[in-house]
Amino acid sequence: MDFSFTPDQLALRDGLREALKGLDDAPDAALAWSRLSDLGLPVALVPEADGGLGLDELDLVLCVEETGRAALPVPVVETCLVAPHLLTPAALGEPATVVLDGSDLAPWAGLARTALVGDRTAVRRTPALNPVHAVDPYRPLGRPTAPGERLDVDRGALDKGWRAGVLGTAAQLVGLGARAVELAVEHVRERHQFGVPVGSFQAVKHQLADGYRAVELARPLVHAAAWAQATGAPTAERDVSAAKARAGTAAGLAARAALQCHGAMGYTREHPLHRWLTRIWALQAAWGTGAEHREVVARALGLIEEDA
């Protein structure tokens, strides 16, 4: 059995990587969204008959990972992966934010044209979001100004939307973690102490190797979860939870290694690393925490008895 990605899936990933060049240095939400739209990604899951690309989550997982690598300041997961399960094709294409964990705190305040807030039993379209403080300034948060209109969405679609959000966040965490390690490697090659590159020190090598290994081991879990979600496999819930738990841990390890290699300047807004660090920390808690997803996996494996 061949588990490799198809030439078309790889070409779409490569095309997006080329389109996103330069956005690492200058995060521009309008430009980022324009380039995603040029490739049709906001309607990629929409059937071709309805004006979309007719793709599935497996086709998109590499692209979503790329948007993590670039730490894009736009709602990729919510718009491209989640909203298609909740809205009609005619309502798709514009930036959207979605929250399905029961919280009234939604990301992308001021950027999203559509805000859907609810849980896995019901969701409402809210008119606007009041901005609140966010750890990641490029992923602004907000609370609804009014309850909004309840949408006619069945439980099956809400479950698929939830899994899509978990999967997409895991894929972005893998991309974010990989790029954080790359930035740290670039830094320790250039910085010198005692007349040699800092990267030549064994302790630095081990830290970065641990971060790299963690991210690389998380990536196959994300790809497997994308297959399960795209094919409707009975293990999809377990698989996306496993991917999110592992990707969150791996990205956190990569972020810690990158920050320790950069030192205090890694925290500063003057250095670009902070964009990857704050996004990792924000996404570790988004769409379910690592502890919550590990519990899902444990229940699926029979390690925790179901509640009576």
From TrEMBL:
Entry keywords, A to Z: FAD, Flavoprotein, Oxidoreductase
Chain ranges of the Acyl-CoA dehydrogenase/oxidase C-terminal domain: 168-301
The keyword Oxidoreductase is assigned to this record: yes
InterPro entries the record matches: AcylCo_DH-like_C, AcylCo_DH/oxidase_C, AcylCoA_DH/ox_N, AcylCoA_DH/ox_N_sf, AcylCoA_DH/oxidase_NM_dom_sf
UniProt-listed SUPFAM superfamilies: Acyl-CoA dehydrogenase C-terminal domain-like, Acyl-CoA dehydrogenase NM domain-like
Acyl-CoA dehydrogenase/oxidase N-terminal domain boundaries: 30-85
Listed cofactors: FAD
PANTHER family cross-referenced by the UniProt entry: ACYL-COA DEHYDROGENASE, ACYL-COA DEHYDROGENASE FADE28
Similarity field: Belongs to the acyl-CoA dehydrogenase family.
Name listed for the protein in its UniProt record: Acyl-CoA dehydrogenase family protein
